[in-house]
Amino acid sequence: MAADAQHEYFGSDRFLGDEVVVSSVVTRVLGGKSFALDGSEYGDESLLVLTPDGIGDVEEGDVVNVSGYVERFVQADHAEEHGVFDEGVHDVYADEEFLRADHIWKGALTTQGAPTPSR
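Above: the chain sequence. Below: its structure as tokens.
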């Protein structure tokens, strides 16, 4: 399924610094402060999400919504705040756009864009 151009936040540097909301499936938990989403609807195969507050009870396979800012991933810039020390885990995202999360919540978005709480 091709992504709409308006939602390809992570396919180029066009949206760097912009605040966005994405909704997708967690494909891999990378650590206590990072995980990957299926980014196919947003311009990239895999979307790195980093959060200084920790990922909480997010698990692989969960549908989550994430609001935050599009930034470029440079491991050294995020190592301490986000616990991104293992280059083998995060090096695939080097110099790519990622989502610096402000808020993470579980459940699919409704067609109106409001979250549907998971139970």
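Residues 1-5, 111-119 have pLDDT under 50 and may be disordered.
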